[in-house]
Structures are given as structure tokens and as C-alpha cells.
Amino acid sequence: MRYMIKMRYMKKSLWRILPVALLLFYLLMGCDNHSEEKSKSSALEPVVARLKWLPGVTYIGSIIAQQAGFWKEEGLDVTIKPGGFEADPIKLVASGAEQFGITGGDQLLQARANGVPIVAIFAELRFSPVGWMSLQESSIKTPHDLIGKKVGTMAGTNVEPMFDALVAKLNIDATKIKKVPVTFSMAPLFSGQVDALPVYLHGQPVEVALEGKKIDTINPADYGIQLMGNVVFTSEKLIKERPELVNKYIKGLLRAWQASLAEPDKYVDMMLKVTPGLKREIELASFKAMRPFILGAGPNEIGLMDPAQWQQTFDLLVHYAALPSGLKVEEAYDNSFIKAAYDGK
After folding, report:
1. Are strands 76-81 and 45-50 parallel, antiparallel or unpaired?
2. What are residue 342's DSSP bridge partners?
3. pTM
4. Which of the residues 2, 100, 270, 332 has an alpha carbon 20 to 30 A from that of 230?
5. Alpha-carbon torsion (227, 204, 230, 85), positive or negative
6. Interatomic CA distance for residues 327 and 295, integer angstroms
7. Which domains does the chain have, with CATH numbers?
């Protein structure tokens, strides 16, 4: 897969518990033991939403929209399914098999460049949380401190163009930084294989800090390098033929994000009821660390996509990731549904 997919800290134990956890997730998200509720749900329109990766706090908006009944109040019976290597949201939504999905903004642009007719309709993370983590003893506080150091790289992911853009913008001589290929494990950092490791800033650094380890992080956004983060998308066909369905979906999703941000403890606990195996302390801390990525300039902008942000993402990918320059970036996203949700329409 071309761009970075979140894999929660690839430990062997994950693959032992994964089948059970996913089975419980499916059962809990779809369980309905009351005949009255069953009769009510029969009047709802069935919809399928595909996450980018495994269920967790990154996708709390979708999970809460379903569990708190926000989508049901819009007349929708939404089934949430986890993403993964064998469950690509872009392919499933583009084929019409499913209605909505979550992917990275950079992945969406690449898909459109390949002729896939999908459109972003809601920004869950207004800019990418990809950054770099180092041990405090390495004294890496800024990108300039990477000179002479070993930095983890992930070829074929959005880590590469972001790193290249960062060092270029700061006039850092990239030849003085040793790139070391890494996977999704944190082991290379603690073994000394690398001095700085690419991470999701609301993920691995939070977990490591909770374990009492002293770390530093570099956030490319602090230096003006901001790729679009996760976006909710659908097909051009659904937008054209069923705009009222898209509108209902976004209204319920917006309410879920607003509620979760207003009462994080309450809604993280609600999420944990249907995401077995996750630790409350980590998920709650990770969600709080997500706030700047969700809110952007202010709470009234939840979900809205910034045209300048899309343009920067496009320009960066054209320059550093060989994205075709002829792509019409303004056709890749549609803010009309989130604006309608704010207007109460």
C-alpha cells in the first residue's frame, strides 16, 4: 500500500488477540437483543462504513456516532468494519460495495490520480500526525539536530515526502543524515538502530511516555509542513445520486466528534465497551493528544477541510512523491455537507 497505514505498535501478541478482538468488535457493534430495537432498525437505511485500520480512539467519531445513536437519529443503520491490508476502504467504496470510508488525504489524492472517483467530505484529522520520536538522551529537539544522526525511514509511505520536504524547507543537508529503513516496530529506537523513529504523534509517544520513558518529538507542522490527515470519503456516484444520505451521515458524525471532544472520559469509555483489548489510560491520553490534529484553528472547524491545506498536500506530493501535476485538487474534496451540518440542514 502506497501510504502509511496505522498499525498499533506491531507486537507479536497483537496477532494472537486480533482474531478474537475483531470478532468481539463485530458482535458488540452489531448486537441487538431487543425485539423492539430490531423493529426500529428495520425502518432505518443500512449503510456500511470502513475504517482505515483497526478500531481504536483514532476512529472514535465513527464508533460514537453508531453507539450513541447519532446516526440512528438520522435514519441510518450504520455497520462499521475495520480496515487493513485485505480490506482497503478506497477499493471497497469505489466499487460501490460500501458507502463510506476513512483514508489519508494523501492516499485519496493518489487514488484520484489513478482514476478512482472518490471525494473527501469530512476531515477527521486536519493534518497528519506523522512525526519523529527520539530518546531524550539523544538531544534531538529540532530537525537540525538530526544532522549526523540515524533516522528511520519508510519507503513508499507519507513519511518519506514529509521528511524530504522538512529538511528541504529548513535548508538541512540531507546527505548528512543517515536514513535507516524501519518497519512499524519501536524496537529500532530502543536498540540504538536509529536515533529518531517515525511515529504517529498521538500514538507511540503517548504510550512510551506513560511507561515513564523520557522522549522528545518533532512535529513537521511546527515547521509549516502539513499533509492532510485522515478524511472521511465517499464515491462521486453516491454524492450525485444520494446527497441526502451523505448529509445524514455527516450530521451524525459531526455530533459524535463534538460530543467526544466535549466529554472525552465519557465517550472513550463508551468506545471501550466495543473495542476489547485496548487500555483506557492509553486510549484516553491518545485522544487528548489528538485534539490539535482534530480542531485545527478552532472547535467550530471540526470536519471542515482547508483548501490551502489540500493545495499544500498536493504540491508536496507532486514535488516529493511523483504525484501527477495535472490532478485537479479542488475536485478531491467537498465541504458542502459539513457546512450544511453546521447550518442544521
Report:
1. parallel
2. none
3. 0.89
4. 270
5. positive
6. 28
7. 12-31+44-127+228-342 (3.40.190.10), 130-223 (3.40.190.10)
